[in-house]
From TrEMBL:
Domain Nucleoside diphosphate kinase-like: 3-140
Name recorded for this polypeptide: Nucleoside diphosphate kinase
Assembly mode: Homotetramer.
CDD domains: NDPk_I (cd04413)
GO-annotated cellular components: cytoplasm
Source organism per UniProt: Acidocella aminolytica 101 = DSM 11237
Annotated function: Major role in the synthesis of nucleoside triphosphates other than ATP. The ATP gamma phosphate is transferred to the NDP beta phosphate via a ping-pong mechanism, using a phosphorylated active-site intermediate.
Similarity remark: Belongs to the NDK family.
Length: 140
């Protein structure tokens, strides 16, 4: 299997509840390496740019407001099959549908405040990693 990179975001609902360490433990227990990490407060323009792919969706404005409601932690996760593996660890978008043991089953508050973001394809992962990090900041 190929070694991949994926972009993870610990969302404001999770930073607010000091869940960063518990969420990082899930990534590391699954064999993913946290190769870069950065805590930041997104501006509205940055959140709109990051989620531009969702700009036509009915939940876009609420999503942007939520994502700027507090600090986030952007991270690069590296490992075998990292894109799909991270999506597995995260669980379904709606925590009501997330498998037991996943981050969203354990920590998400709602379909919107669902604790983590993860890239959904290798191509999007490359773009999303580059949105937050310079190559020199990524050490696997
Ligand atoms: P993500 O992009 O954050 O990893 O989540 P995802 O792929 O599982 O979900 P996606 O469909 O890409 O939606 C992006 C984020 O928008 C919020 N959302 N709200 N109110 C709603 O119906 C709704 N649907 C989605 C969530 O924060 C979701 O993670
Ligand atoms: Mg998505």
């Amino acid at each position: 299997m190929a070694i991949e990179r994926t972009l993870s975001i610990i969302k404001p609902d999770a930073t607010r509840r000091n869940l960063t360490g518990k969420i990082n433990a899930k990534f590391e227990e699954a064999g993913l390496t946290i190769a870069a990490t950065k805590r930041l407060q997104l501006t509205k323009a940055q959140a709109e740019a990051f989620y531009a792919v969702h700009s036509a969706r009915p939940f876009f404005n609420d999503l942007v407001s939520f994502m700027i409601s507090g600090p986030i932690v952007a991270q690069v996760l590296v490992g075998e099959n990292a894109v799909a593996k991270n999506r597995e660890i995260m669980g379904a978008t709606n925590p009501a549908n997330a498998d037991a043991g996943t981050i969203r089953a354990e920590f998400a508050e709602s379909i919107e405040a669902n604790s983590v973001h993860g890239s959904d394809s290798l191509e999007n992962a490359a773009n999303e990693v580059a949105f937050f990090f310079a190559e020199i900041e990524i050490v696997a």
